[in-house]
Amino acid sequence: MSKTKRQQKQDARAIEQMNEILTGKVQVQYYDRPKKKPQANRIGGATGNEDTEELAGRYVRLLSFLLPGILAMLSEVDDPRNPNKITHSLPVLILYGILMFLSHIPSRRAANREIGGSKASELIQELLAEYSSMPHADTLARLLEGMEEGVLEKRYEELLKDLIRSDKFNEINPGRFLVPVDGTQKFSRRYCWDERTLSCNAGDPEKERYYVYMLESVLVLNNGMVLPLLTEPVENGEHLDGNGKQDCETKAFKRLAQRLEKLLGKGCVTILLDGLYATGPVISLCKNYGWEFMIALKRDSLKSVWEDFEGLRKIEPENTLEAWWGDRKQLYHWSNDITYTYGNNNKLLTLNVVTCTETWQESNKLKGGKPTEKRTEYAWLSSSRVTATNVFMLCTKIARCRWRIENHFLVLKHQGYNYTHCFSLNWSAMKGFHSLAKFANFVNVFITHSLLMADDVAAEGLKGAIKKAWFFLLAHGLPDQYQKNNFKPITTNSKCPKIHFRKIKLKLAV
Predict the structure, then answer these.
(1) What pLDDT score does 499 carry?
(2) Do the Cβ atoms of 444 and 501 come closer than 8 Å?
(3) Which candidate in 127, 318, 343, 402 could, as Cys together with 272 as Cys, close a disulfide (CB 3.0–4.6 Å)?
């Protein structure tokens, strides 16, 4: 396209938008677009005047609030080992596994090298009275192999129940639960090591790959925290249907939705989903649970709905809003009560569709810094009727929070939790390590969002603050300035009550 034609199109679009504004067809509003807080960029002073030992002391102090309650909860799990051959107690091994992920250890071999040869024993000894020696990572793997499958995931659900029903949680997140859901792959191999693995070959049997796939959900809180919620494995075996068809993400969503309903209840949840879930059965399931939803809608999905939307868009010019989100210009169009039928029984659904066209200017380095216009389009299915007063909130403030789970996957895979490392090819042990990583991520999220660590996180970043704290703890042990009597050692025989989060005096940044 020539420059003249491109300029003519831009001019025509500008004139059209001007006429829409002058005639009142388009309303104009402005919203602030939040920007990330810049991190320090000075030499040798990332944490300001505070040194690494003080940072580690603050981290350990917050750790002492959370770990004892978690260990007391997990110590109630049945130990499958022979009592006459036990060297390390169940809480010691579980604590060792959680410390692996808290300190961002990449593998079992690295755990033997970095934790086994470090001063982390001081921390374990202060937490557990029965600690005598450092365990081996293979001992932990054998323990997880013998455990009942999914038992640690159930304990994590209990932890979430205690949190959600606490007064502190209501202070952080009053109102609805914002729950993005998405699937991701953990790892793959060229050979089938377990019958429950999924397989794909892209049409070529010689390129057969076997992989582990998880359907994850997270809880997005009002203060910016993203907590890991429930995990539903996408696996064959009992989920393989009679026709030999593999388990899939949409089937796993039905199982996950049942668990979410038991945990979060009905009518107080907003589910955020990508375009894969823009189907009649998924929408009906959300409506049956009384959940609100924002589901991304692709152009090649629900073609009859798109045809009705494009037709209604021409005769409903009042369903338009123009807004500025920071330096980005947004143009919204919506239509409500679009009918859609699906299935052999022609089940009827009423859908609300909204689109957003966003434009902004970016400097092009290849053209000497000359600004160029960028343009992108979004579309969603909304459970709520869309109006000019709520369209910005539904699309920009709520629907875009689905990207938080993509950021969560980025953290798990590339920022310390080694999500794509199997840790064990035994299916039960693999799930066990996965659950221990969730406990560790849960603890680190709470610590890094507390006011006590706010300055450290602002200077170092989330990953940097955790890395610096554990660098000191593994090399030097507990900080000298830390009061060791703040720990409450527990034993396997003691009936230590669960430490509910409502009882923890942990002030969070709201």
Answers:
(1) 31
(2) no
(3) 402
Q: What are the DSSP calls for 382-440, one per residue? A: ESSPP-TTTHHIIIIIIGGGGHHHHHHHHHHHHSSS-TT--S-SSHHHHHHHHHHHHHH
Is a pLDDT exceeding 50 seen at residue 501? no
- HSE-CB at 348 with a 13 A cutoff on CA atoms is 4
Can you tell me whether residue 170 is helix, strand or coil?
helix
Q: Are 73 and 158 in contact (CB under 8 A)?
A: yes
- pLDDT the model gives residue 52: 84
Q: How far apart are CA 427 and CA 238, in angstroms?
A: 14
**pLDDT band at residue 10, thresholds of 50, 70 and 90?**
low
State the burial class of residue 11 (Cβ atoms within 10 Å of its Cβ: 0-12, 13-18, 19+).
Answer: exposed
Q: What residues does 211 pair with on adjacent strands?
A: 188, 198
d(CA 333, CA 317): 9
Domain 173-414 has CATH 1.20.1250.20: no
pLDDT computed for residue 142 by the predictor: 94
Q: How far is CA 279 from CA 44, 86, 233, 248, in A?
A: 54, 52, 21, 14
- Residue given tokens 């409506």 in the structure block: 287
Most confidently predicted of 116-125, 237-246, 459-468: 459-468
pLDDT in tens, 34-62: 655 555 555 544 544 347 888 888 888 88
Band of residue 206 on the pLDDT scale cut at 50, 70, 90: confident
Containing 465, the helix (H) or strand (E) segment is: helix 462-476
Distance, CA of 217 to CA of 412 (rounded, Å): 13
Q: H or E segment at 141?
A: helix 137-146
d(CA 66, CA 450): 12
Which of 126-140, 249-263, 423-437 comes out lowest in average pLDDT? 126-140
**Mind giving me the DSSP string for 228-281?**
EEEEEEE-SSTT--TT-PPP-HHHHHHHHHHHHHHHH-SSSEEEEE-GGG-SHH
C-beta of residue 449 within 8 angstroms of C-beta of residue 508? yes
Average pLDDT over residues 111-137: 83
Q: State the DSSP string of 317-361.
A: TTSEEEEEETTEEEEEEEEEEEEEEETTTTEEEEEEEEEEEEEEE
Looking at the chain, the domain(s) classified CATH 3.90.350.10 span 173-414
The helix (H) or strand (E) run that includes residue 92 is helix 90-102
The residue-averaged pLDDT of 444-459 equals 85
